[in-house]
Write a structure and sequence with these properties.
The structure holds 2 protein chains of 2 kinds.
Chain A: E1 4-6, H1 11-21, E2 25-28, H2 34-39, E3 47-50, H3 55-58, E4 60-62, E5 66-70, H4 75-79, H5 82-87, H6 89-96, H7 101-104, H8 109-115, H9 122-128, E6 132-137, E7 140-145, H10 146-149, E8 150-152, E9 155-156, E10 163-170, E11 176-183, E12 194-202, E13 208-216, E14 223-225, H11 237-250, H12 261-285
Parallel strand pairs in A: 1-3, 2-3
Antiparallel strand pairs in A: 4-5, 5-10, 6-7, 6-10, 8-9, 11-12, 12-13, 13-14
Chain B: E1 4-10, E2 13-19, H1 25-33, E3 51-54, E4 57-60, E5 73-75, H2 88-95, H3 105-118, H4 124-130, H5 142-156
Parallel strand pairs in B: 1-5
Antiparallel strand pairs in B: 1-2, 3-4, 3-5
The chains are: A alpha+beta, B alpha+beta.
Chain lengths: ~290, ~160
């Protein structure tokens, strides 16, 4: 099949192209995963459908109730929005960890999700703020929570012709905040050994009203960890120890060059404690 | 296979070129436009040797499809100096011996200039993190970091 490069200006055109060409076509956002996979010969799409001409995928709206982030909006540009960073510091911590400045100039939250890597940094960070994926396709629109959007290594819930349009996140309520931590053997330019997203909402008296934790790189997709035991009590060392044990128990890592199963289980607990501590401290400052 | 006709702005000048639909911007710059200052290191976005700016944003040109730049603005290392007058980043790299083999240098120049355009007074840590996507196997980085900090000081003066 003859190679082509398409730059649709509307979602309808893009959906039509992806539907028409099926497996022969791939949507292109920042290209920081797709073009690498093509160069390695892992993917050989004949048709590249560049989504960056579609306004809705490039937009960023900070509404009164929710924030809508276009799926192809670059992470470098997201980081420059001080209001967004203030609202979701944890999400931006995750976005900031995706590759170099050069990669950040192109990479997007949507692309990171659609690539479906179990080690993706945005997965746990988006899951704990309960981001919703807005999807458009041949049969109209639908929404899915991030945890349901990611279905396995390299796999998502997107059907033929469907496009992830945006991520919708409710503004945090009072005394609530997120945090994200990743462990890698150096400080930049690596892939998570373990990633941990945390979200905490406090009562006026400082006790825990809600706590959420999601782990990355220790399961086939983002792994939620139940923290019901923390609700109602103070977020102190004992509570964090309980959360860390829950995280280590929930982790289902594999052995690979980045770490052993035992090592990743232990790091899961450590990162869980630290990320929850940061989220709780931030939440306390939002009283 | 029919080639695509791309009209863009490179280093402030209107440029037209022909390319295959999936050709990278890096290959188009070097082979179609004749701007060979931009180097290929890894071709997978890891080394930064092919750094250019696209609408002012630092990117790896190996991870941009050439056809994408139609209607946009690209700046390469050839656009950094003003005629014969080197940019302070270039001059300071020479003075600090911030290069040996030179393959990574165009990428460092473009990346460092992009940093200083945004952040006139970066800390050493900021310089090191900003340049983390540019790999150099000769210098050990210290001379490059010192050159960039010195260039920043000169630009502020």
């Amino acid at each position: 099949m003859q190679r082509s490069f398409e730059r649709p200006q509307t979602l309808e055109q893009a959906i039509g192209l992806l539907e028409k060409h099926g497996d022969a076509a791939r949507p292109l956002a920042g290209g920081t995963d797709l073009l690498v996979q093509m160069r390695a010969g892992l993917l050989r799409p004949a048709v590249l459908v560049d989504l960056k001409g579609i306004e809705e995928l490039m937009s960023l709206e900070l509404g009164a109730d929710e924030v809508v982030i276009g799926a192809a909006h670059s992470t470098a540009s997201l980081r420059e929005n001080a209001d967004l960073v203030a609202l979701f510091p944890g999400l931006l911590e995750a976005a900031e960890l995706i590759g170099s400045e050069q990669i950040q100039g192109r990479a997007s939250l949507g692309g990171n999700l659609c690539n479906g890597s179990p080690a993706a940094d945005t997965g746990p960070a988006l899951a704990v703020v309960q981001a919703v994926c807005e999807i458009a396709g041949p049969n109209g629109r639908r929404t899915l929570p991030v945890a349901e959007f990611l279905t396995g290594p390299g796999a998502t819930a997107l059907g033929v012709g469907e496009i992830l349009v945006s991520l919708r996140i409710s503004r945090p309520p009072a005394r609530a905040a997120d945090a994200y931590l990743r462990f890698i053997p150096r400080t930049e330019m690596d892939i998570a050994v373990v990633g941990a997203g945390a979200w905490v909402r406090l009562e006026a008296d400082g006790s825990c009203a809600e706590a959420r934790l999601s782990l990355g790189a220790v399961g086939p997709t983002v792994l939620p960890v139940a923290l019901d035991a923390l609700v109602g009590g103070p977020i102190d060392d004992a509570a964090l120890a309980t959360a860390g044990e829950a995280a280590s128990a929930a982790a289902r890592p594999i052995d690979d060059k980045r770490g052993t199963i035992a090592y990743r289980r232990q790091v899961s607990g450590v990162l869980a404690r630290r990320a929850l501590r940061i989220a709780a401290d931030r939440a306390a400052q939002r009283s | 296979m029919s080639k695509l006709h791309v009209e863009t702005i490179i280093n402030g000048e209107p440029v037209e070129f022909l390319c295959e639909p999936h050709t990278s911007l890096l290959d188009a710059l070097r082979n179609e436009v004749g701007l060979t200052g931009t180097k290929e290191g890894c071709a997978t976005g890891d080394c930064g040797a092919c750094s250019v700016t696209l609408d002012g944003r630092l990117v790896c040109s190996c991870l941009v499809v050439a056809a994408e730049v139609a209607g946009h603005e690209v700046t390469t290392v050839e656009g950094v100096a003003e005629a014969e007058q080197l940019h302070p980043v270039q001059q300071k790299l020479l003075e600090h011996a911030g290069l040996q083999c030179g393959i990574c240098t165009p990428g460092f120049v473009v990346a460092a200039k992009a940093l200083l355009d945004r952040t006139p007074d970066p800390s050493e840590t900021e310089v090191r993190y900003w340049l983390a996507g540019n790999l150099c196997r000769c210098t050990g980085y210290d001379k490059i970091v010192r050159a960039v900090l010195d260039a920043a000081a000169e630009l502020r003066a």
